[in-house]
């Protein structure tokens, strides 16, 4: 695939960033990298998403040499230790970078000269990950503080001279008055004023002397502090270099251990090479190190020969092979679908909003709150709205329908195996909205509901209800006019581990298709929020999902690879295999949960020997060319200031007429937070939670009185709450006790009669 055209680099204050091609080695040549120029440092990353956690290299421009090779090429070197051979997409773009680099170099050199003049002999260290940038900014901050202190003391000295001058004049005037030999009360007052003026002058001089001593002491100790800081930086560099060497040695040992087995698996398949990993490697092998515990792939895919069915059935390698006999043609067609179209074009009832108020910049000491929460269930900890995003968990659950069109396409599929591909893509797409969403949704109140009626726009409508508070559980039911139903009951368990937060969704998701009567079930993977205390928050999804078609026995196994700094695989990778009830593979799925998913039709599967780690067998799949199954929609303009909401998320909390009084749109603390009134939202949140606790105590008292009055009901529950729109029953497919939609909500909405709804707000 060809690389998209590099966008023009854009300055942002003192920062300049953009795509530039960087020379890696003679095998891969120039590779496209994201470069960021800031504070005299030029850093680069594989992708823009890596800026939050993984810097691939940094060079200090203060001592660097910038040279131009030809119309598009230029070189940056700091004397031999680091040299970047770069190539811009055009001469104009190269000139923009050269201009920005020269200006940044001049500024960095000027800042270093100023530091040298004031006694700082320590240039900022060019540490990976931005360590040098932090050191340089700290040195300049110290010098700026000292200069400010010096100017303030000079101001105080000037004030001292003025005070001394005017104080002396005042004393002379008072002495002259005293010489008039005034008697009585007037003379006592003059002597009292004279004494106070003398004390004031002495105190002023003492204050000036103390400030001057402080400045001298700060200046004498500043060099000692900076030397100690520089020693710590150098020790950190040595430790990082030692760790890198150990990781390289460990990687070479592991590769030597399993290299022969991997080579054997690839050589046995003469049809082609192993799967491409995209832009997985940055430099040559000597400049890389990988996680030694990285899991080996469970299978290998190689390109299939389009004329494979015409060959002899004999196999030179002697491996047992299975040909997909149910595939009538081997051409690279998209999944077969009915070409039915709606009888009329659906039009929206109203124009949905595309913006919400920008997120305020309120600071909060996270550690002061979280240090007492380690090891506890996060749902039982009162949290301020500063950690939230202005939607509830019910709305977040409804956001799974962001890519409902995948289920629309699945409902039109002729084959259950093809349908499984779209169901798997829908399963993965639900996580694409989480990549930048580090805010916590509001915990719904017991009895809170949320409706999402998109019947006119998209053919579906959905209803969520909070059916339990401890443990928190939400039931969800969505039905579409295009032939599918989605239902789920999700209980979220979360644990704070000090450095990260683990969120484990418990419950099963069901997708039922009316035309084929196919019934699919699957569960969600674990979500991890990293850098809770220190650093920039980022989210990862990891685990495995088994999607089962209970009607036909088809299965799809999806694997979400956890992020690893040392892995050569693309970040947020997802792989999967679609198999029939006999275990025969028909499709291979691959992609990332934050960008896109692709599918490839399997033409032949071969079972090899014990080539994997721990003696596991690997399967080699020969597939047709991969085709796109799903791709993430771009975020709206300005999403970074609107909690990184998608186009659908921006409309979830939009006020609507006719919704139930328990609807999340009517929740006051959530509405106040969306409007930017966070202090009021925190107060309202505490009021609602106390109201919920009072209602629960009242239910428990009623249940206790019922048990006391009836001897036959000793086993009555302590809390007699029952959901309004969902009823509890045993799921016939999973055996779990779940809540199923019992109907009546949409009919009640048409009548406008909400008398049965509880007062929770």
What would the keywords be for this entry?
761 residues; PH-domain like; Porin; 8-stranded antiparallel β-sheet; 6-stranded antiparallel beta barrel; disordered N terminus
Characterise the protein shown here.
One of its GO terms (cellular component) is cytosol. Keywords: Coiled coil, Lipid transport, Lipid-binding, Membrane, Phosphoprotein, Transport. Residues 13-106 form the PH domain. Belongs to the OSBP family. This is Oxysterol-binding protein. Helices cover 33% and strands 24% of the residues. The strands form four sheets. Strands 1, 2, 3, 4, 5, 6, 7 and 8 form an eight-stranded antiparallel β-sheet that branches. It has a six-stranded antiparallel β-barrel with strand order 16-17-20-21-19-18. The protein is built from twelve helices and 29 strands. Among the domains are: 15-111, Pleckstrin-homology domain (PH domain)/Phosphotyrosine-binding domain (PTB) (PH-domain like, Roll); 353-609 and 617-653, Porin, CATH 2.40.160.120. The protein is of the alpha+beta class and 761 residues long. Strand 20 (526-530) and strand 21 form a beta hairpin. The longest helix is centred in the first third of the chain and has 83 residues, at 185-267. The two termini are 54 Å apart.
């Amino acid at each position: 695939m060809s690389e998209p055209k590099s966008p023009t680099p854009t300055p942002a204050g003192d920062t300049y960033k953009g795509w530039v091609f960087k020379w890696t080695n003679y095998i891969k040549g120039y590779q496209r990298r994201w470069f960021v120029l800031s504070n005299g440092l030029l850093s680069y990353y594989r992708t823009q998403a890596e800026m939050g956690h993984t810097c691939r290299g940094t060079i200090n421009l203060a001592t660097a040499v910038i040279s131009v090779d030809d119309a598009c090429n230029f070189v940056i070197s700091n004397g031999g230790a680091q040299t970047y051979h770069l190539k811009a997409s055009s001469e104009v773009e190269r000139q923009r970078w050269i201009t920005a680099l020269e200006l940044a170099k001049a500024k960095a050199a000027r800042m270093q000269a100023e530091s040298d003049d004031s006694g700082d002999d320590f240039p900022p260290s060019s540490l990976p990950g931005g360590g040098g940038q932090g050191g340089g900014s700290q040195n300049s901050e110290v010098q700026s503080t000292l200069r400010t202190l010096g100017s303030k003391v000079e101001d105080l000295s000037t004030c001292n001279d003025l005070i001394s001058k005017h104080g002396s004049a005042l004393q002379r005037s008072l002495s002259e008055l005293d010489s008039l030999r005034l008697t009585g009360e007037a003379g006592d007052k003059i002597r009292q004023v004279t004494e106070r003026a003398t004390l004031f002058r002495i105190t002023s001089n003492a204050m000036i002397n103390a400030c001057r001593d402080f400045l001298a002491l700060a200046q004498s100790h500043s060099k000692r502090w900076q030397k100690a800081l520089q020693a710590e930086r150098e020790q950190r560099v040595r430790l990082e270099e030692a760790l890198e060497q150990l990781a390289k040695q460990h990687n070479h040992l592991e590769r030597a251990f399993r290299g022969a087995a991997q080579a054997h698996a690839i050589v046995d398949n003469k049809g082609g090479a192993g799967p491409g990993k995209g832009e997985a490697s940055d430099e040559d092998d000597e400049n890389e190190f990988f996680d030694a515990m990285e899991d080996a792939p469970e299978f290998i895919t190689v390109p299939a020969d389009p004329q494979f069915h015409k060959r002899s059935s004999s196999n030179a390698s002697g491996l047992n092979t299975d040909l997909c006999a149910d595939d009538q043609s081997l051409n690279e067609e998209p999944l077969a679908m009915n070409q039915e179209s709606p009888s009329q074009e659906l039009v929206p009832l109203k124009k949905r909003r595309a913006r919400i108020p920008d997120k305020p910049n309120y600071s909060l000491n996270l550690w002061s709150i979280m240090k007492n929460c380690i090891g506890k269930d996060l749902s039982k900890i009162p949290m301020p709205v500063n950690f939230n995003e202005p939607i509830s968990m019910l709305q977040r659950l409804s956001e799974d329908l962001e890519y409902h069109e995948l289920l629309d396409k699945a409902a039109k599929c002729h084959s259950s195996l093809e349908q499984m591909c779209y169901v798997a893509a829908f399963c993965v797409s639900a996580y694409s909205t989480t990549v930048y969403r580090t805010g916590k949704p509001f915990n719904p109140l017991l009895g809170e509901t949320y409706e999402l009626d998109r019947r006119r726009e998209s053919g579906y409508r959905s209803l969520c209800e909070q059916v339990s508070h401890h443990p928190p559980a939400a039931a969800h039911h969505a039905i579409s006019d295009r032939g599918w139903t989605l239902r789920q009951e999700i209980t979220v368990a979360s644990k704070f581990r000090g450095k990260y937060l683990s969120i484990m969704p418990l419950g099963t998701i069901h997708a039922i298709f009316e035309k084929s009567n196919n019934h699919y079930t699957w569960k969600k993977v674990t979500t991890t929020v990293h850098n809770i205390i220190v650093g920039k928050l980022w989210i990862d999804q990891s685990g495995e999902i088994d999607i089962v078609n209970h009607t036909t026995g088809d299965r799809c196994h999806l694997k979400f690879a956890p992020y690893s700094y040392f892995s050569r695989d693309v970040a947020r990778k997802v792989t999967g295999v679609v198999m029939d009830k006999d275990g025969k593979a028909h499709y291979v799925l691959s992609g990332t949960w934050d960008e896109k998913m692709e599918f490839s039709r399997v033409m032949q599967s071969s079972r090899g020997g014990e080539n994997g780690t721990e003696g596991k067998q690997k399967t080699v799949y020969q597939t047709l060319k991969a085709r796109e199954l799903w791709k993430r929609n771009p975020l709206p303009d300005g999403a970074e200031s609107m909690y990184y909401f998608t186009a659908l998320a921006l409309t979830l909390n939009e006020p609507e007429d006719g919704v139930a009084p328990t609807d999340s749109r009517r929740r006051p603390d959530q509405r106040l937070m969306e409007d930017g009134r966070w202090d009021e939202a925190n107060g309202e949140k505490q009021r609602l939670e106390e109201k919920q606790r009072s209602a629960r105590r009242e239910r428990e008292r009623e249940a206790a009185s019922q048990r006391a009055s009836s001897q036959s009901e000793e086993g009555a529950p302590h809390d007699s709450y029952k959901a309004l729109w969902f009823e509890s029953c045993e799921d016939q497919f999973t055996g779990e006790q779940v809540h199923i939609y019992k109907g009546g909500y949409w009919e009640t909405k048409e009548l406008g009669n909400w008398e049965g709804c509880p007062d929770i707000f």
